[in-house]
Each structure stands twice: as structure tokens, then as C-alpha cells.
Amino acid sequence: MKLATRLWLLGAAVPVVGVVLALVLAGQLYEIWLARVVDQALLSQAATEAVSLFDGPGGEPHLHLEHSPLTDVVRAFAPVAEVYGPDGRRVLSFPSTESAASERLVPPAEDAPPHLETVREGDVPMRRLTVRVVSPAGVPHLLRLSTSLAWHEAAVRAFQGTTLGMAALLGIIFFGLQTWQARWLERRLKELRGLIARLREGVLSGAPSEGATRDEVAEVESALREAAGRLGAAREAQEQLIARAAHELRTPLALMRTHLDLALWKERDVAELRTSLEETRREVERLSTLAGNLLDLASFGRGTWEVQRGDLGVLLEDASAAARAQAEEQGVWVTVEAPRPALCAFHASSIRQALDNLLANALRFAPRGTEIILRAERRESLWRVSVRDLGPGIPAAHREKVFTPFYRVESSGPGTGLGLAVVEEVARRHGGRAYVAETQGPGAELVMELPDSGPAPVSLHQP
């Protein structure tokens, strides 16, 4: 079923049918209510006439309505009142009429209740009330009140005609509104379908412009536009990463090939061959490190992390112990400063990997005879994990870029340019951040902040 048909059916046809049924039921209730009003009016007048029917001169029956000063005013809609004697003959009526003078009505039995009925006189419906009235002398009489129901039927017809006309007008308005709404939604959904088709084809630009309407469709449109932007940025970053990785891989491969070509080009002694093999081994280690870091970056985007609450101090001690051999070889010592226990929710293996990368970066630049401080401290709802060395430091212009994949302060410097990118990704996946802190004196301090409660649940709007 198309959207326009669904909107017409549910937004116009069904409501209008419901309104019509409700109006028909209301008309029936209105008719019943009018009939009850007529009956109550007849009973009220009958009660008044029955009390004073025989209080005239000589105890003869008389109708008070006939002598009322408002007789001419109410004559048009007042009921016809008739009194019949014990023999069934009519003794008086108001207004006076001869049409039923020969009609005989015997008074009902003594215990008979007032009798109401609807009859027709020609084409005119009439509502009649018949009651037994006894004179002071004990003579039974019959009082009959009759009123026309023509006005009653006219009122019901007017009510039904007016309400059904309003329902028809309402139906036209509903159908018009739903037609406009269907076309409006169809236009907006067509734009969304076009955007989704472009996304499916890999075209991440040309999203529909954001309109002034703020509703659920606009939220979906905004989410798709945001997703398209993020996908475009992610694809661009991926392409840059691949290009940089290819460049970084090409350099050690070219060096390795050069060393091997030189070794095979002419006869060399054992020392020269050993030198070539050692240089080739260093390039192999560099390739291995680069491949490992690339795999680390790729692995962070897959799977679910098992975050558990643990002691950060234990991880700091383990990372320090693992780096101690290299530190001693370089004449550097590593100090750990952390409260015990330093409880935090984290993914242990990734945090340990980030700590190893931070220590490797510090060992790469720390001068002989200096100290590297590995510290964890609590700051409100965050844990601040930092590594401080006394090397040349990081210039202010490079501090925001050192966490970018393959970025190095000096293009010919050591490392692959991926270690700090891994640190930044680990911090981000934990809901924190990584940055270079301002320091007094020589060296650099790299910081990784982690929320005490661990990473927040991933939202559908997050990349």
C-alpha cells in the first residue's frame, strides 16, 4: 500500500466514517432525549390540570389553560387537552374542535397508570397521554393531552442534516490535508531514498539540505547526513592511512633490496655480508613493528571489548618491568608513581599496549642517566596516566599532530609513527583522550585520560 493511500485511509476515511457513526448515534440519542422531554412536559401539564380540573363553579370540569392570560401566546405549540366523562363522551376540549366529537373514551380502571403512546393523525405524528381523573363527587373522568411531534421530527432532521454536512466538510478537509501531507512526505522520503542510494553506491556527498522542519523525518535525514559525513571522513582517513602505510613500507623494502642487491652484485667477505644482513635485519624488525602497529589499529575497530574493573597500578608495574631491560641498556631508569589500589574499569590488554608504546616513545628520546616517570593519579571521575621523560621534548606546533598515524616530528627520526596513534585510539575507545601536557623544564609528558567508570555504552550515532 502506498503512503498516500495509507494516509487517506487512516488519516481521512477512517476518521470520517468514525465521525459519521458517532453523529448517527448522537442523532438517535438526541431523538430519544427530545421524546423524553415531550413526555415530561405532558406529564407535568397533566399533573397541573388533574389537580384543578374540578375547582370551578358547581364542580364542573374546566381547563385552566383556556383561561390563562398567555393562551394566545402558547396556542401554537400547546398540547390539545380533552376531558371525557364517565359515559365516554367528550365534555370539553382546548382548543375547541369538532373533528372528534363523536369519539368515545371510557375512563380507564382505577389502578391504571398514565398511558403514553405515539399515533398519527393524517401525516402528522402525535404523542398522547391518557390519565384517569376522579371528581370530588367520585365520578371518574378521562384526561387526554395530545401534542404534535412534527417539530420533533424537524429538529432531528435539522440536527442530522447539519451534522452530516459538517462531517462531509470535515471529510473534504481531511482528504485535502492528507493529500498535501502525503505529497510532502513523499518528496522528503524521495530525497532520503536518493541519499541512501548514493551511500549504497559509495557517493558520500550531495546530502539533502537541512530544512526548517524539525520532526522525526528531519532527525533521520540529519542522522543520514551525519553518517555520510563521517563515512566520507573515515574513508578519506583510511585512504590516507593506506597511502602513508604504503610509503612507510616502501622505504624499508627498498633498503632491504638495495642491501641484498649489493651483496649479490659482487663477491664480499664475511664481515661485509654480516653488515648487510644486520642492516637487513633492522629493516625487517622495522617492518614487523610497522605491521604490528597497523594490525593493532585495525583490531580496535572490530569486536567487543571485555571491560573489567581492575588495578591500574598493577599494569603500570608490569609495563615498567617489561621495559626495564631496555632502559638499563640505555642507562635510564623507570619509576612508577601510583596509588594502590588504583581501581578503574578498563580493557587490560589494550591499556597495557598503550603503556608499552608510551614507554617505548620515552625510551627512544630519554638521554642516558635520566629518569622516566610512569604515573597514575585520580582527578575527579578520571584517571590521568602519564609518562614523563627528560628528552628534547615536543615543540608546541607538533603536539596535536603526534597522535596522527605515521606523523613524526622529524621525518627521518626513529619509530614508525604509529605508536602514539595506537595510544590515542585506546584512550578514545575508553571514552577518554590522549594529549601532550604542558611541562616545566626539559622533556615531554604524554598523558592518557581514562574515565573511572570505563567506556560509555556505544550510541547508534557514534562511529
How would you explain this protein's 3D organization?
This protein is of the alpha+beta class. 50% of the residues lie in helices and 17% in strands. The chain contains eight helices and twelve strands. The strands form three sheets. It has a five-stranded antiparallel sheet with strand order 2-1-5-4-3. Strands 7-9-10-12-11 form a five-stranded mixed sheet. Strand 11 and strand 12 (444-451) form a beta hairpin. Helix 6 (312-330) packs parallel to helix 7 (348-365) and helix 7 (348-365) packs antiparallel against helix 8 (419-429). The longest helix is centred in the middle third of the chain and has 51 residues, at 150-200. The radius of gyration is 50 Å and the shape is rod-shaped.
Attribute tags:
50% helix, 8 helices, disordered C terminus, 463 residues, single chain
Proportion of strand residues: 15-25%
Q: Order of SSEs, N→C?
A: HHEEEEEHHHEHEEHEEHEE
What overall form do the CA principal axes indicate? Answer: rod-shaped
Q: Helical stretch count?
A: 8
Helix proportion of residues, in percent? Answer: 40-55%
* Strand order within the widest beta sheet: 2-1-5-4-3
Structural class: alpha+beta
- Tell me the distance between the termini: 35 Å
Outline the biggest β-sheet: 5 strands, antiparallel
Gyration radius (Cα, Å) is 50 Å
Low-confidence stretches: 458-463
Provide mean pLDDT, rounded.
Answer: 80
Number of E strands:
12
